[in-house]
């Protein structure tokens, strides 16, 4: 069972890494908010087709938590992907993939500030190392650039994407107890609704690009694999080996994203990218190894 869980989780992070590459490939073929709208429209329709009965059975619970569920979908899915796809109009897919490593760091910081969740000295050191890796990427190998505030617009948007997903992750502690089909359908609907005014904004500002053949292919990929299939496999993996162990696999997203960016998009792999990857993954691994041990009585 563990081998199967590992396979599920590796596939999940592979598709999530591919999401950044898809956003880069979309440039000129479909605008960022239209891609986000198309992705979650497809995901919602597919989820609804397989979960209608489950949703009807759990509708009383869903109705009581509609604002929370729609808000989670809007922030975690539309907010994150909207900023991600917009960022990739200006920065590389490699940078976008590596900077996602900052999600774990920000979750740690927010958990400490809001909920006072403790951390060991080793864990803090690990997060700091990981943060340096993210900063190195954002500064394109020049940390002095950060001190002089010379950030690429795309990297700044990527940091907003990281903030959205960190908030989404923390807020999941308040999600209602629902079957995964119902939960995913509700979150996808929230993402779909939130994407509509953003598409309208693109139209009003003259930035809307309707999908061509490549754009439709990217909608299909993002709606099926990073959204529907990845979420299903991730939930299955969590059920098999537990949330804590399954969560470690998210650290593979920057690795797969970087590899796919070089292989598929043909982007250049710089020395600072490799150093940043080592720092991000190594720092997170150190933080996990040094996590506080819960006392039992």
Automatic annotation (TrEMBL):
Highest taxon of the lineage: Bacteria
Primary site of residence: membrane
InterPro entries hit by this protein: AA-Vitamin_Transporters (IPR050638), EamA_dom (IPR000620), EmrE-like (IPR037185)
Residue spans crossing the bilayer: 38-55, 67-88, 100-117, 124-147, 153-171, 183-201, 213-236, 248-266, 272-290
Record-level GO cellular component terms: plasma membrane
Topology of this chain in the membrane: Multi-pass membrane protein
Keywords (A to Z) from UniProt: Cell membrane, Membrane, Transmembrane, Transmembrane helix
Compartments, record wording: Cell membrane
Boundaries of every EamA domain copy: 5-137, 153-286
Pfam families linked to this entry: EamA (PF00892)
Protein name per the record: Drug/metabolite transporter (DMT)-like permease
């Amino acid at each position: 069972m563990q081998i199967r869980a590992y396979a599920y989780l590796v596939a999940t992070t592979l598709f999530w890494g591919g999401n950044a590459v898809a956003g880069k490939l979309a440039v000129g073929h479909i605008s960022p908010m239209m891609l986000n709208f198309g992705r979650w429209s497809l995901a919602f329709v597919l989820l609804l087709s397989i979960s209608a009965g489950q949703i009807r059975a759990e509708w009383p619970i869903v109705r009581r938590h509609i604002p929370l569920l729609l808000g989670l979908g809007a922030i975690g899915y539309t907010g994150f992907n909207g900023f991600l796809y917009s960022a990739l109009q200006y920065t590389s897919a490699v940078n976008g993939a590596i900077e996602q490593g900052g999600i774990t760091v920000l979750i740690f910081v927010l958990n400490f500030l809001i909920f006072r969740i403790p951390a060991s000295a080793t864990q803090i050191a690990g997060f700091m190392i990981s943060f340096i890796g993210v900063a190195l990427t954002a500064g394109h190998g020049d940390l002095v650039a950060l001190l002089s505030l010379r950030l690429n617009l795309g990297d700044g948007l990527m940091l907003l994407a990281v903030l959205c997903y960190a908030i989404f992750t923390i807020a999941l502690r308040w999600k209602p107890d629902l079957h995964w089909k119902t939960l995913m359908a509700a979150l996808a609907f929230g993402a779909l609704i939130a994407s509509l005014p953003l598409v309208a904004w693109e139209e009003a500002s003259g930035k809307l690009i309707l999908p061509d053949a490549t754009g439709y292919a990217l909608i299909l990929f993002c709606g099926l694999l990073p959204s529907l299939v990845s979420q299903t496999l991730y939930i299955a993996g969590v059920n098999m080996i537990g949330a804590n162990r399954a969560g470690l696999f998210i650290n593979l997203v920057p690795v797969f994203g970087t590899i796919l960016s070089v292989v598929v998009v043909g982007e250049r792999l710089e020395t600072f990218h490799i150093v940043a990857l080592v720092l991000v993954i190594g720092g997170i691994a150190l933080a996990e190894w040094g996590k506080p041990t819960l006392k039992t009585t």
